[in-house]
Design a protein that fits this description.
homotetramer; mainly alpha; Glycerol uptake facilitator protein
């Protein structure tokens, strides 16, 4: 167990879920919520990537493990810390926000559409992570945080009206606690996101057979 | 045929056209559509550029071929995959979107204005691509995806009110299927975009005689 | 005393506080104020970081000093110049703005919420600064200004509705002069921001024991 | 005379002024005009900086000349091409735009406020250019286009409501032709912008005595 990496994963996931709650729940950032969320993910990756890899997302950790860049022990540790950080962030939001929503903000979603939306952009996210942060061809670049964080920004504006735009099981859990997502829909998010992590990992391995 | 490069071109073009459809067609991203579209192009270039060059655009592939950095065989393969990806992305959007537009969103465009708008910003796009991704003077930089993707962002906000802002024959085809552009106007886009790719390639060759 | 570093700190802090005033006070940048403020911080860090470190923020200077990358003499000099720059920026805004607010724009803030909001995002800011600008693991990167400046952007959209989003004692002083913040609340900002700088510095030292 | 550098200056200045006109004049980019303008400057600098330095702005060329990184012959050539490009861009906008404004959009500006606004952000722009594109301490960085282009973005949102936000004599000329600025105010822009270029150059020389 690398306690330093776990602390970095905690901090990054906490700020991601905290920003989701603060920016999405009224009074928040309005249409700028997607910019705020993609941006906070970017800065946390730039800050913590050199210590933990900057996952902050169980689907990313799943993809990195399947790609062969994390042990199962590390992955389990990351998953636990990411979910705990999301829960604590949701609780902090509930302390600060004057009025939390009483009904899920994104409760009435189309099942097929939401499955597709969450699958596609979580695939894009893990595909981008593996290519910009673990591939030899992009080694030493200075854009990894921008590329990864802003994939979430693009997804939030592209499919936010369909699924709310989670792309991250920790955000899904934290968002469900904050009534951004409905608990009854949680399977949609988790199935689509984790499957996307698997497909992205095998896509990466097909594209980079020697690595 | 490099199957890996073709798969990367498929993924990148798919997400570009998918984001165009999801962000532009109501309910979408509103005024943030241009940000979402430029951003998704940026992240796909950062992710796939080291494998395929990250064209995702037949006009870019045309320019890269004329600049001498792609064989005609590769170019034809890229063109086919880019158009197929655009068609599939349009179909996926039609599955997800509750209401596709029945009439073209950008149907009533001024011919001269739209020709100029599409020519100018497709020229800018291919000029930027060739300079930041194939020139010796910018070798090893970490900004190529930002520069290329955000050229489309700037163009979308600058001339979106004139032509809708395609700058890409694959986006033009996908957008026509999704009724974002009118089929009767498709020649305007294709003529302007492909001509711009040619002019940008020769401009680059004039500027870099030794490369 | 390094007069060049002090001049750079003056210029950077001046433009940060000037932009805060111009963008926030009506007629300003509306919802784009957060983008403008994060952006101006980014560009001033990219411009001046190689001379002064690009702090422009007494809480950052406190964190850098506790992390061991600045002497107490330098820190005191930075603090004085940062506050003086903020005061002068506020005065210049009052010359340009046709109508300064007569009552504090963010006067009625919840104490616990504002303490949490200012503490959390000032912690994030100093944590990002120390990791991207002083850590061996990110040495030579080209993203430090983007990461630091856009942490303030994310924070502005995330918690701007709670505390106004200062994260910087110099901005707090300048903002109080411009009636963006209420003088009666200044202790909330200063306590939360300076405490966050301390906690971020010790977090960094725990994460990088050898540096 | 370096014909290649002059062509690059023409292209970059053309797209900058073209985007100003298209984004600002209704129907344009609305509140996103500042983002579009800063972004197009960024991409043109990333594309052309390795050939011409990527000035696209007579005040920047003035500053670079005074800093000792351009001959007077080069500077005069740049100035002529920049102004010609601005004039042609304004004419192209007048061909595309269905309705050009009949009265200056930013005609009624406060003299002192506009002088200060244009001076301050043109100073910031030239200060950023000299530090990120000509200083030894930032040599080889990948952020120069982002830093320079987004200085204009920050300025547009900070002081756009005061002066319209030109920071560039070529934009001032092109904008006056397009009735974005009033001809009677042109001295305000030119005096403030050129003076800012001078002050920024001497500030840079004070900060970097050995270069």
């Amino acid at each position: 167990m690398n306690v330093k990496a776990l602390l970095v994963e905690f901090i990054g996931t906490f700020f991601l879920v905290f920003t989701v709650g603060m920016a999405v729940i009224d009074p928040g950032a309005g249409d700028f919520a997607g910019l705020a969320i993609g941006t906070v993910l970017m800065v946390m990756i730039f800050a913590g990537g050199h210590i933990s890899g900057g996952h902050y997302n169980p689907a990313v950790t799943l993809g990195v493990w399947l790609r062969g860049k994390a042990s199962i022990t590390d992955a389990v540790g990351y998953w636990i810390v990411q979910v705990v950080a999301a829960i604590i962030a949701a609780l902090v939001v509930s302390v600060i926000k004057p009025a939390m929503p009483t009904a899920a903000l994104n409760g009435d979603i189309p099942v097929i559409g939401a499955l597709l939306a969450e699958f596609l952009f979580t695939f894009a996210l893990v595909y981008v992570v593996l290519n910009v942060a673990t591939a030899k061809g992009t080694d030493g670049n200075s854009f990894y945080g921008l590329a990864i964080g802003f994939t979430v920004l693009a997804g939030a504006y592209a499919v936010g009206s369909v699924s709310g735009g989670s792309f991250n099981p920790a955000v899904t859990v934290g968002g469900s606690i904050m009534n951004i997502f409905a608990w009854g829909n949680i399977w949609i998010y988790l199935v689509a996101e984790l499957l996307a992590g698997v497909v992205a990992a095998f896509t990466f391995r097909f594209l980079h057979p020697g690595e």
